[in-house]
Design brief:
Helix content of chain A: 10-25%
Pfam family, one (chain B): Dioxygenase_C
Order of helices and strands of chain A: HHEEEEEEEEEHEEE
CATH topology of the domain at 95-263 in chain A: Protocatechuate 3,4-Dioxygenase, subunit A
Number of helices of chain A: 3
Helix content of chain B: under 10%
CATH superfamily of chain B: Aromatic compound dioxygenase
Strand content of chain B: 25-35%
Distance between the termini of chain B: 14 Å
CATH architecture of chain B: Sandwich
Number of strands of chain B: 10
InterPro entries (chain B): Intradiol_dOase_C, Intradiol_dOase_core, Intradiol_RC_Dioxygenase, Protocat_dOase_a
Shape of chain A: globular
CATH class of chain B: Mainly Beta
Number of domains of chain B: 1
Radius of gyration of chain B: 17 Å
CATH superfamily of the domain at 95-263 in chain A: Aromatic compound dioxygenase
Structural class of chain A: alpha+beta
Strand content of chain A: 15-25%
Radius of gyration of chain A: 20 Å
Number of helices of chain B: 3
GO molecular function, one term (chain B): protocatechuate 3,4-dioxygenase activity
Largest sheet of chain B: 5 strands, mixed
Oligomer: heterodimer
Number of strands of chain A: 12
CATH class of the domain at 95-263 in chain A: Mainly Beta
Shape of chain B: globular
CATH topology of chain B: Protocatechuate 3,4-Dioxygenase, subunit A
CATH architecture of the domain at 95-263 in chain A: Sandwich
Largest sheet of chain A: 5 strands, mixed
Organism (chain B): Neomicrococcus aestuarii
Family (chain B): Belongs to the intradiol ring-cleavage dioxygenase family.
Amino acid sequence: MSAQETSTDKSFENSHALDPAATADSQQQIDQEIADLHGGYRAAVESGESKEETQPRINFAPYRSSLLRHPTKNLHHADPETIELWSPAFGERDVHALESDLTIQHNGEPIGERIVVQGRVLDGDGRPVAGQLIEIWQANAAGRYIHKRDQHPAPIDPNFTGVGRAITGPNGEYKFTTIKPAPYPWKNHHNAWRPAHIHFSLFGTDFTQRMITQMYFPGDPLFSLDPIYQSITDQKARDRLVATYDHSVTSHEWNTGYNWDIVLTGSNRTWMEDGEDEH
Amino acid sequence: MAQAPDLKLVPTPGQTIGPFYGYALPYADGHKLVDRAHPGSIRLHGTVYDGKGAVVPDSMLEIWQADEHGNIAQKDGSLVRDGFTFTGWGRVAVDNVGHYTFQTVNPGATDEGKAPFIMLVVFARGLLNRLFTRIYLPEDTAALENDPLLKSLSEEQRKTLIATREENGDLRFDIHLQGENETVFLAYPRNGE
C-alpha cells in the first residue's frame, strides 16, 4: 500500500472545499487587496492612530477562507485562572527521540535537500521553555502532503511522511532533521502558490501560550504573493517567521542548516525567584 | 483589566493550521481523556459553525481541564495514552459535518466556590490564529453568578460560554466563529496581542 492509502483519514474528505467564486480571482487582484491593507496599516502606524501589529489579522480578505471564519468581535480580555496557568505535560513516554528525524521513518532515503532546522523556544520574558512538546508537519520535496485531499499532481515520496515531534531541551532547544519542502498550489485564487513552509505546533508553560505557526525559508520569491504570510501586516513581524540560513548548522556532504527561534507569549504565572515552578 | 509589565521579547506570529494537518496532529484516542467505563464519564460534544451557519469540517479542537476533584494533572502520557492516567488534555479533529466528541469527566472547581470550566482552543483552515475560549458547566449557578469573566459579559455573550446539560448527563457546546451567536473568544494579559 502506498503511504497515501495508509494515511487516509475519512474525516478530512471535505477539508479542501473552497469557495468556487474565490478561485477565479487573479493574483493581481489579490496583490492589490494586500497592498491596500498594508498601505492602510502603515499610514495608521505613521500617524499614530494604531500601534504596530505583531500578530496576523484574523480577518484578512485576500485569504478568502478567513472571511466567514474570523470572530467579528474583539477578543475579550480575561484574567487567566488556575487551569489556564498550567499546560499539559509530555515526556519520553509520548515522544521517541528518533521522531525528530523525519528522514529515517521509512525503509529508504527520502528525495530532496536534507536540512536541519534548529533553534530555541522562549517565552516573552526570554525564559527557555524546557521539556515541552513541539510538533511539525510539512509537504515533501515535490510540494505534496500525505493527505487524501491534497490532490496536487506532484509525486508522493514513499520514504517521507513529513511529521516530526520533539521535546525541548533544558535551554528550550530543539532540532529537526528533515527534507526541504517545496511550494505547492492551492485554490485561494487563480494560480495561487504557497511559499515553502514547515508547520509548527507549540506549547508553553501556561495553556494561554499554546500556538500554531509556520516557518518559512529566506529569500522565497512567493512571499509577496501569499495572503497567509501577508496577513501579518507588519514587515518586522513577518520577518519573525523566516528562518536564517546558518552555515555552522550545515554539515559536510550531509545537510544544509537553518536556525529559527520561537517566542511564545508571556507567561501569566507568578514564577519563583529562580524561574522554576514548584511541582 | 490588569496592566501587565511589558514583554522583553515580541511573540512569534501565529499562522493557520491549514487544511492538511489531518495526517499529523490527530492521534489514537486523542478525544478520550477517560475510558467510557470510568465512573462519571461524560461525552462533551458539539459542532463548529462559520458565519453563514455552515459547518467547519476542517477545524481541530483541544481541551485542557482539571479532573473531577479540581486537581490539575501534571502527568505525561497525553499523546500515548495508557488508559489509566488522567492527563487532562485532549485533541480532536472534527468530522465531515463539523461535529466533535470528547470522552471526559466534569471538571471539579480548582478553588473553593469557583465555577468549573474546561479550556478550549480552536484551530481551522481560514483561521489565521488559534482562538481560546472556556466551556463552563451549567450547574453551579451561584458560582457562575460570581465568575469574574462571566460577570463582565452581556447575557447574550454569557450564554455562548455555558454548556448545555443533556438528559443523559452529556455536555453540549457549539462553537460559532462569527454570526448572531458568535462565541466569546478570549485574550489574556501578557499575550502580546
